[in-house]
Amino acid sequence: MKQKFTILLDLDGTLVDTAPDLMHAHNHVMKKFGYATKSTKDIRSLVGKGAGALIGRSIWGQAKKEFGKVHDEKIKKEMEKDFIDFYGKNIVNESTLINGVKEFLVWCKKRKISMAVCTNKTEHLAIDLLKKIGINDFFEYVAGHNTFEYCKPDPRHLTSVVEILGGDIKKTLMIGDSETDANAAKSAGIPVILLEDGYTEKNTTEIYHNHLVKDFIDIEKIVLKYL
């Protein structure tokens, strides 16, 4: 039986503030290979200014941008592996749910709204994070950057998940924090609820959205307009 409504959610910067643990993984690798480290305060202040390249929305996004200056491919791969290994072992040391997330997920579940995560984080790390932070059971599907042969901003990352859930694009919402989420949703014809201060280099005025919110507090009022 098809669900009445579907909500797709990004992970890093949307459901979970993963900046602290990404920062520690970043510093672990940078220190090992002789590169500059960052403090959590530095990371957060830069994110507030839109310097999302320093933490990224996914492990691979982080690695590619930080390691772009390294020309030795063997060293690049070693750094990427170290980054993912360290992050995987320390994935929820300091990461926390965005304000209001748990209450919103409970609210959706009670209304039989179908929910899925669409993230550019590696799939197994995304699922591990969701489990360890206690919200994995709310989601019917988790699609990471390596789940399909494409990922956000390709709209198929979203439309494929809606199809898997037996949903309807016309009865779907996307909640995210960056232009990667917004552009994928826009191309798919899905309305976007955008979180402020996302993991992005752009200002919210530069990112497509139908609704702008600070966090998940009272976000139900927006969703009700679409049910």
Key words describing this protein structure:
9 helices; six-stranded parallel beta sheet; globular; alpha/beta; 2 domains; Rossmann fold; 227 residues; two-stranded antiparallel ribbon; single chain
Overall spatial form:
globular
Report the order of strands and helices: EEHHHHEHEHEHEHEEH
| Number of H/I helices | 9
**Count of individual domains:** 2
Largest sheet: 6 strands, parallel
The neighbouring-strand order within the major sheet is: 5-4-1-6-7-8
Strand content: 5-15%
CATH topology of the largest domain: Rossmann fold
- Low-confidence parts lasting 5 or more residues at pLDDT below 50? 44-62
Task: Tell me the number of strands.
Answer: 8
Q: Could you give me the name of the CATH homologous superfamily of the largest domain?
A: HAD superfamily/HAD-like
Q: What's the CATH architecture of the largest domain?
A: 3-Layer(aba) Sandwich
Instruction: Please identify the top-level CATH class of the largest domain.
Output: Alpha Beta
Query: What is the mean pLDDT?
Result: 85
Taking all Cα atoms into account, the compactness measure Rg is 17 Å
Helix content: 40-55%
Distance between the termini: 17 Å
Structural class computed from helices and strand pairing: alpha/beta
